[in-house]
């Protein structure tokens, strides 16, 4: 945050991490501190945290064919008014979460196949999800809108 001279709160957070579950704790703390400093709505905080945890867990678990934990992943958050946009870039296997099948919610939990519910929750919490595969990298762009502050007028 050089160049701010302390006058303005940073509206962008960029985090570089490795493809390792141990990174989740660090990123969750950094993201929470950043989002809370902007006094965003609980819906936005929850939505961003849910999306990041679910997507990063899926990248760690399914994104790579090797056991190497040295793959680079970048996460960028930008506060846009009362909402947040998120970009996640990784070099894992191609996976467009918008193309993942919807889980069968009519089947009792004990009879459902494992998987898909987290992505379903993410899709329903966020306002936009865009996926691109560019130069052998997955680029996932997400946004969640917050509620504008009340003006006190009817």
Describe the structure.
The termini are far apart. It contains 3 helices and 5 strands; from the N terminus they run E-H-H-E-E-H-E-E. It is globular. The chain is about 30% helix and about 25% strand. The protein is of the alpha+beta class. Strands 1-2-3-5-4 form a 5-stranded antiparallel beta sheet, covered by helices on one side.
List the keywords:
154 residues; alpha+beta; 5-stranded antiparallel β-sheet; disordered N terminus
Strand pairing plus helix content: what structural class? alpha+beta
What is the residue-mean pLDDT, rounded to a whole number? 82
Strand runs, count = 5
Helix content: 25-40%
Shape, principal axes of CA atoms: globular
Biggest β-sheet, characterized? Answer: 5 strands, antiparallel
Summarize the helix and strand pattern as letters.
EHHEEHEE
How many helix segments? 3
Strand content: 25-35%
Oligomer: single chain
Write the layout of secondary structure elements.
Elements: E1 12-18, H1 23-36, H2 42-62, E2 72-80, E3 83-90, H3 117-125, E4 128-134, E5 137-144
Antiparallel strand pairs: 1-2, 2-3, 3-5, 4-5
Question: Quick recap of the structure?
Answer:
The protein is an alpha+beta fold and 154 residues long. The chain has three helices and five strands; from the N terminus they run E-H-H-E-E-H-E-E.
């Amino acid at each position: 945050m050089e160049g701010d001279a302390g006058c303005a709160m940073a509206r962008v957070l960029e985090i570089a991490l490795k493809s390792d579950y141990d990174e989740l704790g660090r990123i969750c703390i950094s993201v929470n501190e950043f989002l809370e400093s902007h006094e965003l709505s609980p819906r936005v905080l929850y939505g961003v945290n849910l999306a990041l945890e679910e997507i990063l867990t899926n990248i760690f678990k399914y994104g790579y064919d090797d056991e190497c934990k040295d793959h680079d992943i970048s996460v960028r958050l930008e506060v846009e008014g009362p909402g947040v946009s998120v970009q996640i870039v990784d070099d894992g296997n191609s996976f467009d979460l918008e193309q993942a099948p919807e889980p069968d919610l009519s089947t009792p939990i004990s009879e459902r196949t494992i998987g898909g519910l987290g992505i379903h929750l993410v899709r329903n919490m966020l306002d936009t999800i865009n996926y691109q595969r560019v130069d052998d990298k997955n680029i996932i762009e997400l946004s969640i809108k917050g509620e504008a502050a009340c003006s006190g007028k009817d």
